[in-house]
Write a structure and sequence with these properties.
This protein has no helices and eight strands. The chain is an all-beta fold. Strands 4-3-2-7-8 form a five-stranded antiparallel β-sheet, with no helix packed on it. The protein has a three-stranded antiparallel β-sheet with strand order 1-6-5, with no helix packed on it. Strand 5 and strand 6 (43-48) form a beta hairpin. The relative contact order is 0.29.
Length: 82
């Protein structure tokens, strides 16, 4: 999951169900399947490996810039492939 950063970013975070997965480079999730892929001026991307039905739901990327906060939402749908 990826979100664009933009200019003058001061803080970034990925959240799911009110839980913080990443705050900048700091991993807050205890789930070993969640990892940081990219964090730079342009992009903030995390990856969840081996997704299952419990991973379904709304994920939010929150970006704080010098001028205003901004959020990007991704709704993940996991299909049971059995």
């Amino acid at each position: 999951m990826s979100c664009s950063q933009g200019d003058f970013v001061t803080h970034t975070a990925w959240l799911n169900r009110s839980s913080i997965l990443y705050a900048g480079e700091d991993k807050w999730s205890v789930d070993s399947r969640v990892s940081l892929v990219t964090l730079n001026q342009d992009e903030f991307t995390i990856k969840i490996e081996n997704v299952d039905l419990t991973d379904e739901g709304l994920y939010i990327c929150a970006v704080q810039t010098r001028s205003r906060p901004r959020t990007t939402s991704v709704h993940v749908i996991v299909q049971d492939m059995q």
